[in-house]
């Protein structure tokens, strides 16, 4: 991002660097550059300082958006109702700010007391004045040298956490850093993840601990808690057994024998670590004082070798509950045994209270990328219901009362990934794309409807003479559905391009963006499209809404590259559209308000397509005219 300096000179604010070398109580030296502090108003410090356990449990009255999911429950529902079905057509851009690194951006903005905090690609963080978009400070952790040019899907960051004046952020190369929320200056930084692991989860602040998940590559997934004051490790829970069979000295050790018994005695998992990454499904239950997290699929993740035996491969593709202060195991529910068909359980978790047989029950709702929305009793993890997100979920016929998936063919009850069950084309709730986990759903407690992004992968043909190879999904067709999480009754659905995270509001609206750059407001009750804006950058993260003064605003982050809309492609031609994709798709923070008048810059002219027949320095053919 660039902007005007204090003396009118043009500067690259993301390149502002000083060296910060801070070490505290076992924390590693932070070699990250220190951001340039900007003079702040006292309201900034007051705002960030008041984010504590009580505030995160409720989320407040809607004036702020203090956590990525609004509050600990992660419902992504706002009580604000100034913008509603009657006036949403007047919504316009109030301001926007360009972000650096024009690639995928997955985070939901966090907003407190008129300041917007954004976790950008390549693990950068910035704070903006919510009124006018003025950059207050920015922070660049300078990723390790082996992260220069990853696939755009693998370079995004899912968000930040605030707690009593501190801002916590993670980096893809495995660091956890505490910043002063007022200035952006690092307070401490540690190397949290093991070599080869990545950290993409948004941190979660609980009980003076900051919780993060990790995994990826040929490693074991894990979740860990660090002291908020200095970054000291308090506990770690590994999601797969130690391949050596030895204890880790971790909170997961008491479950080591149980987990190990579900894996083969040999196999590639002992080299890879088994997988089970904790990507972004982390939630805290303030009512029951329990921490929940979801785990990814197994590694290696090909159908022939992943299972390595007949066991369930605990704890891949599972929801696990632990005590937040110690990491002590409480219960687990495995959504997909052995992570069959490469299904993980990494989509964000929602906590809600709903009537079951006339009695209010505390439930954990999870739209899984295996195509089912499961509801679990938060006390013990018992399955309450599992409803399909569409009619064409084919890998299982449902779940038994014992919480096990029911095989589609009774004569072949084993749900492990075998040749006889390929190919398979399920509908899925926006499953992982590379390292990126799924789009966040929203839940409206007033209507008891969940709003879930879905998509239908189109499998490509298997390689010739290799019927055992899994189909390669081509992600494109998607939609948004509103359904009852217990009965599965679909209130409405909308087909469109593959969509991102969802926001619902007390104004009777549901907001969602898509990879084609469209940002849409639907009527929450009937799904009617009430408003749309084309933002020229793909939208994968969920929006946030908040008050600036007395004005309700809606913020969303766009990224690049984006899919060029068909209308633009047909008008400009394929070559020109490809040029627009690289030149015009921008990473931005875009903020809307009623009667907003700002316009995004026009797309640049496409680069000229070179004529291979005209090569400089060579004589060109001439047409002879006699």
**What is the strand tally?**
39
Helix proportion:
under 10%
Radius of gyration of CA atoms, rounded to a whole number: 24 Å
Q: Sheet with the most strands?
A: 5 strands, mixed
Q: What would your notes on this structure say?
A:
The N terminus and C terminus are likely disordered. This protein has a 5-stranded mixed beta sheet with strand order 3-33-34-35-36, with no helix packed on it. It contains 6 helices and 39 strands. Helix content is 7%, strand content 32%. The longest helix has 11 residues. By secondary structure, the chain is mostly beta strands. The chain starts with a strand and ends in a 32-residue tail after the last strand. Strand 34 and strand 35 form a beta hairpin.
Write a brief structural summary:
The protein has 626 residues and is mainly β. Helix content is 7%, strand content 32%.
Topology:
Blueprint: E1 2-4, E2 10-12, H1 42-49, H2 53-58, E3 77-78, E4 91-98, E5 110-112, E6 115-119, E7 125-129, E8 135-139, E9 161-163, E10 166-170, E11 175-180, E12 186-191, E13 204-206, E14 209-214, E15 222-227, E16 233-238, H3 256-260, H4 269-272, E17 274-275, E18 282-285, E19 290-294, E20 298-299, E21 318-322, E22 329-334, E23 350-356, E24 359-367, E25 372-377, E26 383-388, E27 442-444, E28 449-455, E29 458-460, E30 472-474, E31 477-483, E32 490-497, E33 499-505, E34 509-514, E35 518-523, E36 529-534, E37 544-548, E38 551-558, H5 566-572, H6 574-584, E39 588-594
Parallel strand pairs: 3-33
Antiparallel strand pairs: 1-2, 4-39, 5-6, 6-7, 7-8, 9-10, 10-11, 11-12, 13-14, 14-15, 15-16, 17-20, 18-19, 19-21, 21-22, 23-24, 24-25, 25-26, 27-28, 28-31, 29-30, 31-32, 33-34, 34-35, 35-36, 37-38, 38-39
Helix pairs in contact: 5-6
């Amino acid at each position: 991002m660039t902007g005007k300096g204090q003396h009118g000179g043009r500067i690259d604010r993301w390149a502002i660097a000083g060296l910060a070398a801070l070490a505290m109580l076992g924390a590693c030296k932070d070699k990250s550059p220190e951001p340039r502090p900007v003079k702040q108003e006292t309201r900034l410090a007051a705002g960030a300082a008041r984010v504590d356990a009580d505030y995160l449990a409720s989320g407040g009255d809607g004036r702020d958006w203090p956590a990525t999911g609004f509050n600990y429950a992660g419902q992504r529902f706002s009580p604000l109702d100034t913008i509603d079905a009657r006036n949403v057509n007047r919504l316009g851009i109030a301001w926007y700010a360009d972000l650096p690194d024009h690639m995928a951006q997955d985070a939901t903005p966090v907003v407190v007391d008129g300041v917007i905090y954004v976790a950008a690609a390549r693990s950068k963080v910035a704070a903006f004045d919510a009124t006018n978009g003025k950059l207050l400070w920015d922070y660049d952790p300078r990723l390790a040298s082996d992260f220069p040019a990853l696939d755009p899907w693998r370079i995004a960051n899912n968000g930040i956490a605030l707690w009593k004046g501190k801002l916590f952020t993670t980096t893809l190369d495995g660091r956890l850093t505490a910043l002063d929320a007022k200035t952006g200056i690092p307070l401490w930084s540690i190397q949290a993840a093991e070599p080869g692991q990545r950290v993409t989860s948004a941190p979660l602040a609980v009980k003076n601990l900051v919780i993060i998940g990790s995994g990826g590559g040929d490693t074991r997934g894990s979740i860990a808690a660090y002291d908020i004051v200095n970054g000291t490790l308090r506990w770690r829970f590994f999601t797969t057994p130690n391949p050596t069979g030895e204890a880790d000295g971790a909170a997961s050790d008491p479950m080591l024998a149980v987990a190990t018994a579900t894996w083969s005695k040999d196999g590639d998992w002992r080299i890879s670590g088994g997988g089970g990454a904790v990507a972004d499904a982390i939630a805290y239950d303030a009512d029951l004082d329990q921490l929940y997290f979801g785990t990814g699929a197994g590694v290696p993740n090909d159908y022939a070798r992943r299972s390595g035996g007949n066991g369930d491969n605990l704890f891949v593709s599972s929801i696990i509950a632990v005590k937040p202060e110690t990491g002590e195991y409480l219960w687990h529910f495995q959504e997909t045994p052995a992570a069959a068909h490469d299904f993980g359980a990494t989509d964000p978790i929602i906590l809600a209270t709903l009537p079951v047989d006339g009695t209010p029950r505390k439930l954990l709702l999870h739209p899984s990328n295996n195509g089912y929305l499961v509801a679990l009793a938060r006390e013990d993890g018992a399955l309450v219901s599992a409803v399909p997100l569409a009619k064409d979920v084919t890998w299982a016929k449902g779940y038994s009362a014992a919480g096990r998936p029911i095989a589609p063919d009774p004569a072949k009850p084993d749900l492990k990934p075998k040749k006889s069950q390929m190919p398979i084309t399920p509908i899925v709730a926006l499953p992982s794309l590379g390292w990126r986990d799924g789009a966040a759903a929203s839940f409206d407690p007033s209507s008891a409807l969940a709003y879930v992004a879905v998509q239908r992968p189109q499998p490509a043909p298997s390689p010739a003479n290799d019927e055992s190879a899994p189909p390669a999904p081509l992600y494109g067709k998607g939609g948004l559905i509103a359904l009852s999480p217990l009965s599965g009754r679909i209130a409405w659905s909308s087909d469109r391009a593959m969509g991102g995270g969802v926001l619902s509001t007390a104004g009777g609206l549901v907001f969602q963006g898509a990879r084609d750059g469209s940002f849409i407001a639907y009527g929450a009750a009937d799904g009617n499209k009430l408003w749309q804006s084309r933002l020229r950058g793909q939208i994968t993260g969920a929006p946030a809404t908040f008050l600036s003064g007395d004005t309700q605003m809606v913020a969303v982050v766009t990224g690049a590259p984006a899919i060029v809309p068909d209308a633009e492609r047909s008008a400009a031609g394929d070559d020109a559209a490809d040029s627009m994709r690289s030149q015009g798709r921008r990473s931005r923070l875009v903020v809307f308000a009623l009667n907003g008048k700002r316009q995004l810059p026009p797309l640049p002219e496409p680069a000229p397509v070179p004529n291979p027949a005209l090569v400089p320095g060579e004589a060109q053919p001439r047409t002879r005219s006699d």
